[in-house]
User: What shape does this take?
Amino acid sequence: MANVDDPGQKDRAQPQYSKPGENKLGPSLAGVFGRKAGTEPGFSYSSALKGQNITWDEASLNEWLQGPGKFVKGTKMIYSVPDEKDRQDVIAYLKTLK
Ligand code: HEM
Assistant: This one.
């Protein structure tokens, strides 16, 4: 994941996303691929995201990571991955998180 504006942000984001059941600033992303949006137990989602009928697959993650707030108006996630190649790498990584 090159081209992340604030490398510290990536470092903070990575570990918090890889452990199953661990929700911090964002929900745990373990098993997120194939999961319905807004359904990780114990995480307090925005009503914007909870109200969506989205299943996380390549297409929806690609849209989401380009601009969460454009894809889901009112979401609490403001972080995006604008670079195409980085985004594909991130999605490939998410698939490995079980
Ligand atoms: C490459 C890094 C990131 C990826 C791949 C990512 C991916 C995701 C995905 C797929 C969701 C939806 C999860 C679900 O429906 O269960 C989500 C939600 C969320 N993420 Fe991220 N995220 C990243 C970085 C961040 C960062 C850095 C923050 C905060 C500093 C953050 C905060 C949130 C929040 C608050 C939500 C819930 C949004 C809502 O309820 O509207 N994310 N993220």
